[in-house]
Amino acid sequence: MMVLPALQDELTSATARLLATAASLTDADIAAPSLLPGWSRGHVLAHLAGNAHSHINLLTWARTGVKIPQYASTEFRAAEIESGAARSAAEHLAHLEDSVSLLAAAIAELPGPAWSAHVEGLRPPSHPAWYGLVRRLREVGLHHVDLDAGYGPADWPEVFVLRELNDTVRFWSREASTIGEIVVLDPGTGAEVAAWRDLGAGPAVRGAPADMLAWLTGRTKGAGVSVVPVGQSSTSGASTSLPEPPPWPAMPTPADLPATPPRDYR
To answer: Which residue has the higher pLDDT, 251 or 132?
Structure first.
């Protein structure tokens, strides 16, 4: 169960960074657009607070064995975000601080065996409760960038980026793929860090880890990512325009996760 304290420590650090950004925002900042179409920064913060409470629901389900949906419905989730978006900066910060504090307590109090209990988000498949920590880290990391308030993909910790790239491929859809190969390069040396091949029809794409994850998750238009035309080596210099990134995520969670928390998850 070594993965649990590692994920908890990572979530604590990611949450602290998020709270620091939230504390820096003024009322005018809150009302300004985020990077998500149609959402202000207030929408993003309202979602992050509501998402923390939704993970408490899943942990309660794991602890008690009584099914508690992550959200009552997609309509409830959307209405909660919309109604909370107009809070003042101070109200957003207080609400977010309260929600993440309650989530931290629920995580700390969950008995060991309950981490193997299966729960489910708005969409199947179900997943063991320990993977909820990965899902919450994904929400915090990606939406922190969406705030467009000084925290960008380059600020993501390496462990977060590599895990998310691996998970993106774990729930990859070959049928919907617009690329056939992903090659991740060390930003300093240009050496290959990781590669995933036979992903579907399309060219190879290459780039630094954070740049690749930002593009695959729709956070950038592909800055730092280049294409190698079909039939050429991924290390060649030839390139062309990027296709649209494949739909992300193809699934909310990988389907073959171990029930027992593993020693590591990357």
So the answer is: 132
- pLDDT 10s digits, 216-237: 999 999 999 999 865 555 454 4
Name the residue ranges covered by the structural domains of the chain: 3-151, 158-228
**pLDDT greater than 90 at residue 250:** no
For residue 1, pLDDT beyond 80: no
DSSP assignments along 21-73, one per residue: HHHT--HHHHHSB-SSTT-BHHHHHHHHHHHHHHHHHHHHHHHH-----SSS-
- Cα gap 214→152, rounded to integer Å: 9
* 158-228 CATH pick, 3.40.50.720, 3.30.1050.10, 3.30.1050.20, 3.30.300.30: 3.30.1050.20
Pair 169, 183: CB distance under 8 Å:
no
Rounded CA-CA distance 144/198 in Å is: 32
Q: Which CATH architecture has domain 3-151?
A: Up-down Bundle (1.20)
Task: Confirm if 55 and 136 have CB atoms less than 8 A apart.
Answer: yes
- Cα distance between residue 223 and residue 7, in whole Å: 29
Q: From CA 21, how far away is CA 189, in angstroms rounded?
A: 32
Q: Are 262 and 4 in contact (CB under 8 A)?
A: no
* CA–CA dist 127, 135 (Å, integer): 10
Q: What is the band of 252 on the pLDDT scale with cuts at 50, 70, 90?
A: confident
pLDDT value at position 232? 55
Rounded to whole angstroms, the Cα distance separating 169 from 243 reads: 17
Q: pLDDT band at 238, cuts 50/70/90?
A: very low
